[in-house]
Input
Amino acid sequence: MMTPDTRLIQKDKQKLDPALYVLSLSKLFKDLGTGMLAFLLPLYIVGMDSNIFSETPIVVRAGIIATVFGLSNAISQPFLGRLSDSLNRRKSFVVIGMAGFTLISFIYANTHNFDQLVLLRLLQGLTVGATVPAIVAMVTHMSTSSTRGVAIGIYSTVRGFGFGIGSIIGGIVASYYGFVTAFYICALLGLASLILISFFVSETHDGIQSKKSTSDSAQGFQFAILSIAMFMMMAGIMIIFAFLPEYETRLNTGQISLSIAVSAYVIVRVLFQTPMGLISDHIGRKRVIAMGLLLNIPIVIGLGHVDNVIQLIILRAIQGISMAAVETPVMALAVDLAGISVSSKVSSITASQAAGMALGPIMGGLLAGYISFEMPFYLCAVMLLLSLMLVLVGIKEPLNLKKE
Output
């Protein structure tokens, strides 16, 4: 029978640390800028001079500009995650990354060569890669296993809201004031996050290492499956960025309509992120992850057969539900498994997410540019099916999930 003191301790563990809201809000402005850039750059490169890629189809160029960012982001995260763990410092990594994002966003406004833009996007991926594992670790330090799904859901909701609204803002600003003005706004948004993080977010440190319910080899196998699932999801979602110029022509639509299609996914994902985290806290991470993967399979096939922008917006909105059902419980489960080395271990998940962001667009661009428009969407569906089977067979819930 629980004593009053025990009940009080249990109640405290169900509460969220207010610092989580400060951290999430501080990063919001940079995420607005990230959403703007993800939408603007594939359209900004149309007609741009290039010494290396002069004969490359526009869908491939659009894929390249997205890929170099995601790939450098993915490669840098495991190394920087291990470094932040070894130093037991996170805030400094976030501050340096925010500063790099801000500076490069400012330089975009004065860049008119595709090759130079590719190099800048690669460098920006490295700077953003410094922030991701550090921020995930900070969110972890501000939560317990019984509130982790909700905590990650709240952080992801604020982050996703910024990204989604950023695409719409980017489309409006570019349409009425031009790309240069939009890039300056991105730089100002990055500066706002840099100031807030520097002055209003405190450093966090590792606590006591949690007990493991699985062996190191079994844990490593599950991390690999979670990484694959995140990679497949992001590849199927980010593939659309390679097709923005093609959708603009095929669907006879404009920048604002396309920005709404891009943002529909993120806005709906934002609405479902915290509920999915709460559901995973109660019924288990594995079930929610599997449902999200299954839902995304017919969606990606449909994206290759849309006839108008309304269909594109609807499919992207439903895709937001599927991603919320995967991302939040995957991150929560990874943290449950990681224990004390959160930055270094969870960075394998975030790096896979970034790799999917990187390879999805370039894969889509190459297959569409040289084989057929529909081929990349069918390939993504097969990849999602394989990852679903791996999750069903190889993922187990931690035994200590509900013991805190």
Remarks:
- Confidence is low (pLDDT under 50) at residues 1-13, 208-214.
- The radius of gyration is 20 Å.
- The chain has 14 helices and no strands.
